[in-house]
């Protein structure tokens, strides 16, 4: 059925470096997933040298999920991926040690989330495991690519930059097909004013004013570099695209919230440097509420080319063929599996057409 028996292992040697996760996860039983609470979420250690590392690029519609980060219930993106990998590899969470590049929040979508996992064995072909993973995942989650990773590659700490999109539907009446995939602003926004305000975010700043407190998270520097922040009109859609070396918890949604107030002409564009300079989350809270999650997309996680070069002797990368079916816009073919939806923007999560 899933071609699990056809998975082949080989033994090219790799001095891998990975993370170790605490806790175990039980296997899927009769289609029902059960999870155990991890003792430790993600702790970086040096694993045995016979471990092999694999990189995945993942797309998902985050509407039904409690974000990326592992938690027992309700299940998250990481939970579903781990359980698929556990069934296929017969390894537990501690050995797989799945680590994501970013912890997207509840309701946030992704086209280019990146993660890595480890195994004590190597594959000489990645196509079978790729198809098997997608066959076990719900239709809202798809692994777009699997490749062998260098020992020093780390999905999170090797990141060079990330790109996020935020979509705003700017018409008096909300298009129901955008309801879960764009924020609705019935008030006509001023894109020019938003562009002027967005320019103030570009550069190296202390973004304390734009960060929510994250529970059980490691201490992070509030100093971040934003390389660009574009505001593009696409008919009724207004797309905000921001690229930076890293982002604090809910930073993008908080920056968008301030731009929305500027777009409504309730605040001037030069309010941005004032809020940045305050270095106080309460200053932003006085003028803007956080933008909702369903308009946000993690589009890509970027790395230096050198770190992405596969180890010597590793198998070829496996890519998912993403294309709209000839049956029309209600059906998408993903690695031979059909995903049915009457929402073209749900399907658009799995095609470059809407995100280029």
UniProtKB/TrEMBL annotation:
It is an enzyme of class 5 (isomerase). SUPFAM superfamilies: Pseudouridine synthase (SSF55120). Coiled coil: none annotated. Residues 57-155, 197-304 form the Pseudouridine synthase I TruA alpha/beta domain. The keyword tRNA processing applies. Keywords: Isomerase, tRNA processing. Pfam families: PseudoU_synth_1. It comes from the Eukaryota. GO terms for molecular function: pseudouridine synthase activity; RNA binding; tRNA pseudouridine(38-40) synthase activity. It catalyses: uridine(38/39/40) in tRNA = pseudouridine(38/39/40) in tRNA. GO terms for biological process: tRNA pseudouridine synthesis. Its EC number is 5.4.99.12. NCBIfam families: hisT_truA. Belongs to the tRNA pseudouridine synthase TruA family. This is tRNA pseudouridine synthase. It comes from Setaria italica (Foxtail millet).
């Amino acid at each position: 059925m899933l071609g699990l028996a056809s998975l082949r292992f080989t033994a090219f040697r790799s001095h891998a470096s990975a993370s170790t996760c605490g806790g175990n996860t039980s296997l899927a039983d009769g289609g029902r997933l059960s999870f155990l609470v991890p003792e430790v979420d993600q702790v970086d250690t040096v694993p045995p040298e016979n471990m092999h590392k694999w990189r995945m690029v993942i797309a998902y519609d985050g509407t039904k999920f409690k974000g990326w980060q592992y938690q027992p219930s309700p299940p998250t993106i990481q939970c579903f991926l781990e359980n698929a990998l556990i069934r296929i590899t017969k390894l537990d969470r501690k050995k797989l040690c799945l680590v994501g590049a970013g912890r997207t929040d509840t309701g946030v979508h992704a086209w280019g989330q990146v993660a890595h996992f480890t195994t004590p064995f190597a594959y000489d072909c990645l196509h079978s495991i790729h198809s098997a993973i997608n066959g076990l995942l719900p239709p809202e989650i798809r692994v777009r690519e699997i490749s062998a990773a260098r020992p020093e590659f780390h999905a999170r700490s090797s990141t060079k930059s990330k790109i996020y999109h935020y979509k705003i539907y700017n018409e008096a009446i909300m298009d129901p097909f955008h309801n879960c995939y764009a924020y609705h602003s019935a008030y006509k926004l001023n894109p020019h004013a938003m562009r002027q305000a967005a320019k103030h975010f570009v550069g190296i700043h202390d973004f304390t004013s734009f960060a929510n407190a994250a529970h059980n998270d490691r201490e992070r520097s509030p100093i971040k570099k934003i390389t660009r922040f574009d505001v593009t009109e696409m008919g009724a859609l207004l797309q905000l695209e921001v690229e930076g070396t890293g982002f604090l918890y809910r930073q993008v949604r908080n920056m968008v919230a301030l731009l929305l107030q500027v777009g409504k002409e309730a605040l001037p564009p030069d309010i941005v440097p004032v809020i940045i300079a305050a270095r106080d989350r309460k200053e932003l809270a006085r003028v803007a509420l956080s933008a909702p999650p369903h308009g946000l997309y993690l589009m890509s996680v970027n790395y230096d080319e050198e770190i992405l070069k596969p180890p010597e002797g590793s198998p070829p990368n496996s890519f998912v063929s993403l294309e709209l079916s000839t049956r029309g816009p209600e059906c998408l073919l993903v690695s031979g599996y059909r995903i049915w939806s009457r929402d073209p923007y749900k399907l658009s999560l799995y095609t470059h057409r809407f995100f280029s």
